[in-house]
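Lab notebook, bench 4. Still working through the backlog of constructs that have no structural model yet. Next entry is a single chain of 250 residues. Request: give me the structure tokens for it.
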Amino acid sequence: MLDAIVGYDALDAEATGAASKYVPNGGYGQFLRMDGFKGKRIGIPNGFFTQEIFEKKQLRAYQKHIELMRKHGAMVIENIDITKNLTEVQNVLFSNEHIAMIAEFKLSLNAYLSDLLYSPVRSLADVISFNKAHPAEERLKDFGQPYFIEAQKTNGIGPVEKASIQRLNKLSAEGLEKLMRKHQLDAIITPNNNERVFFAVSGMPAGYDSQGVPFGTCFGGLKGYEPRLIEMAYAFEQATKVRRMPGFKM
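Model written out:
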């Protein structure tokens, strides 16, 4: 899938032109390696794996997996301080990411829909109206469409959005990017998807809680780190075999 979606696209030249330089020759399948942990430096940040957040069963599973990474050749550096106030930084990241996301979502969706050869909807406004006209089929009662409505109220990338993007870039450059380079890390590990606002991540199942609900582990890295993240995620998957097929009760 990643091989199919990466690369240069003339219709999205600005974004894909910069990103395409990170695409490896030969595709990403070559990085599905059993020894993917060998020689990797992995950071474990403070504030994520705590008793205040997880039950004992989950914490034991995470500790077991961290030891497994060491066993398979990784150097694990624990107790890394990402920031003095993790919650505050996460809140700042979430809020600024949201401002930029909804504005960019409207622009991108409108551009995509307007260029289709055939479509019953040609804009985000059309999508909102379509959902209102088909509430049962679109399950408006269950999910609503608050992000769509919020995005429709935006008017492109203005001063507010530009300021949010600048704050995000500054936090990224002065935060985890600097930290990872300082410790020469290949990845930072967090539970579930807790680091998604910091990085693009590769997530893998880590276990199941007392109710049978799965919880995961995320490997996060910097731009262009996809090959090494795939190596680690694949090695983790093959070494643990945690995932099990979901069961459905009729």
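Notes after review: Residues 28-82+183-240 form one domain. The chain has two domains: 28-82+183-240, 87-170. Flag for follow-up if needed.
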